[in-house]
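Thread: quick sanity check before group meeting

JM: Hey all, I'm pulling together slides for Thursday and realized we never actually wrote out the predicted structure for the chain we discussed last week. Dropping the sequence here so it's in one place. If anyone has concerns about the input, flag it before I start.
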Amino acid sequence: MNPNPRSNSSSYSSSSRGRSGGTGGYGRPAGGSGYGRSGGSPGRSGGYGRPGGSGGYGRRSSGPRGEFALPVTITPALPAVTSFAELDMPSELLTTLTSLGMTEPFPIQAATLPNSLVGRNVLGRGRTGSGKTLAFGLALLARTAGRRAEPKHPLALVLVPTRELAQQVTDALTPYARSLRLRMATVTGGMPIGRQISALRAGAEVVVATPGRLKDLLDRRACVLADVGVTVLDEADQMADMGFMPQVTELLEQVQADGQRMLFSATLDRNVDLLVRKYLHDPVVHSVDPSAGAVTTMEHHVLHVQGSDKNAATTQIAARDGRVIMFLDTKHGVDRLTAHLLNSGVRAAALHGGKSQPERTRTLTQFKSGHVTVLVATNVAARGIHVDNLDLVVNVDPPSDHKDYLHRGGRTARAGESGSVVTLVLPGERRQMVRLMSDAGITPQTTQVRSGEPELARITGAQAPS
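JM (edit): ok, ran it. Output follows.
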């Protein structure tokens, strides 16, 4: 192993090193920002590079751009509670909460559960990691308890955008479902459809599904939604971004028209707004600032780096003590960086859409256990990955829009934990990054850094690989 990361970087970046404004070799075209738009001149950036300064990010918006107004609640909401014991829930759920160390509800749970438990529609708008899975899950399970599903006819449905999120939701709710003797089935693409058909045929009260696979099963007549009385849309904005709205709308038309619906979304842009207004009548609204910057436990850093030094800085950050997720734009870039880190002695693994589901599951298990310390990923990992005590997310490639930034950053500082989001920005990317942060409603700390310098270590824990 070479203790000097600079000398290792040529193994994956020689093709782009030395061209002005290059990316450092992680799969973006050299000379561009990766956004398809011209970057700004660093000489006119209004304060870029001053250590610890705002770097031109001082104008903070009230929230992410392009949002629609929240719907008006006609029927007053029931007041929030201060403990789970105040809620009218089956005793089995309260016992399971206690056994798992859940003694005090998070704000979104305290505000929505009194209403969702009595059947009110709910719109939860806020950042990921806020405790929303139990906010909708406890109500869904409580309202389904004591009933038995007929074969192929589930009673409750949770729609999510990705396989990873489907598995996370299933894992989170399984102990509570078991306490009530409710059967769960997970229905996603990338997994054997025959097993999913068998699970539905055997009978499952609760189905957690991605829209595409569930529609496929409906088309095969392996599932019927006519008995679904509780429907949850989790991460609705991501489903819209991924083009699932036609399937989501078709699925919602097949559940009980007078059933309960709960929708959770980090942002409320046009497609989500249309869903809310069509399917959520008189909802109870719980809204927190959707920008991750509003959460006091999360820090945001924009680190200005030069193309010739980006590889070395990235390697040193990856070699820090503790786990980190590093996001890049392309599968090719992820694979190249992962190979380089492994060659440098860093325990890294790749996660992207080109991996099979068993590979992805194995990689996540290794990352959660600490066997892998660096998860190098595309946006496929920005949703549905919950890793306790993850205190750093690094955008090696800056995201293309503010929503991607918020969801990447949502992997850290979850459920009251602290964490940092660091974005490495080349000179040609600075102007676009200012726009992105403004759209996200975030004022980051901006610092000019170089590999091996104390500022990089102070902010990220960077060190030379050992």
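AS: nice. Residues 163-179 form the longest helix (17 residues). The radius of gyration is 23 Å.
JM: adding both to the slides.
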